[in-house]
Amino acid sequence: MTSEQRGDRPSIEAWEAVSPSARPIIRELLVTGPRTRTELARRLGLSTGSLTRLTKPLVRCGLLVERGIVHDETHGHPTRPLDLVAGDYHFLGVKITADGMYGVVTDLRAEVVAEHAEPLGARTPEAVAAQVAALRDRLARESVPPVAAGVTLGGNPSPLGGAGQLATFDAPFLGWRQVPLESVLHETLKIPCVVRNDVAALAHGQHWFGAARGLTDFALVTIGAGIGYALCLGGRVLESTEEDLVEFGHHILDPGGPMCPVGHRGCVGSYLSTEAILSAAAYGLHRPVQPEEIARRAGEGNAVCQDIVRQGSWALGVLAATIANLTGVKTVLIAGESLEVVRAGRRHIAEGMRRRRLHHHRPIDMRMLSSSFSEWARGGAVEAVRTFVVEGR
Ligand SMILES: [Zn+2]
């Protein structure tokens, strides 16, 4: 029976009360699904006695449930695996771009139950928080009220926010410096809210519930209005600052390549930012175009579009090979609006990889995500789950 069927309204407080020593159990069940007590104890390095002691109160208060009887893989005894009731709690995930706001409501395991996209209105923190609240209300009417929210955007926590000070966020694309967005959102939405860098959130979302599920090592590259990068090593997504990402976006792939606004030739952004791709296409075609049209016309044999696809795809192959060579990761996830264009040039991607790999017998596993922003918004919901359910902030 779910908590809604029992008639009590779910709230995040039940998760906040979970003891720190029981949190790894929550994470394991959340990410890997139902497990017997024996399996859980083995995977977490606990005795079955400790595991039973830690899980008993969680089962009693309904956060964990026992599934149907299976036979224990070690002893063959009948046992009932533990699980979370993913559908009992819902989370709001929001991604903010320079011109849009994208929202989803998901369950505990990031299954989307409602989504909506709309243009971004006024850009003051208060106006953005009010728009997030209106988006939440709209999605809640279509689905279920979320118990917590994760909002993601291009930016980072302010470097000066020390202990005891209000957590603040810098988002240069909105002209925000030291904005206490989490507390503004909390006051407006009246539910716990967390604000995170959008690329890191996408990486966390893919790691737990997406294309990188089950991997301990992978990289994520985002090619859109900006260039983003996240690296996950040993199961942990490493934090990057805005400066780190700027350096990554201007890393030179070919000193004879196209020019970027800073004056480099052949940096990552000069090949793969949406602006670079669209302005090259507009120059060649004498009118503005969208990424989908470039891919379509390249398929139809248009020389300008074919060349843009070739160049961007080749650069993506070179970039993926460079990342793999330097970090040792074998899987590279790609997201962002420019994907529409490079997706059409797979053989050029392979050619770019070959150029930077001496022994290309073990190709890099490149996984392309959806180019829509709902996957990013889902990353926001995963950040809310990570923060309030798994870490219990
Ligand atoms: Zn550059």
TrEMBL record:
Source organism, top-level taxon: Bacteria
InterPro entries xrefs: ArsR-like_HTH, ATPase_NBD, ROK, WH-like_DNA-bd_sf, WH_DNA-bd_sf
Gene3D superfamilies, per database record: 3.30.420.40, Winged helix-like DNA-binding domain superfamily/Winged helix DNA-binding domain (1.10.10.10)
A Pfam family recorded for this sequence: HTH_24
PANTHER family: BIFUNCTIONAL UDP-N-ACETYLGLUCOSAMINE 2-EPIMERASE_N-ACETYLMANNOSAMINE KINASE, ROK (REPRESSOR, ORF, KINASE) FAMILY
Family membership noted in the UniProt record: Belongs to the ROK (NagC/XylR) family.
Protein name, entry field: ROK family transcriptional regulator
Source organism (scientific name): Streptomyces hoynatensis
Upper taxonomic lineage: Bacteria, Bacillati, Actinomycetota, Actinomycetes, Kitasatosporales
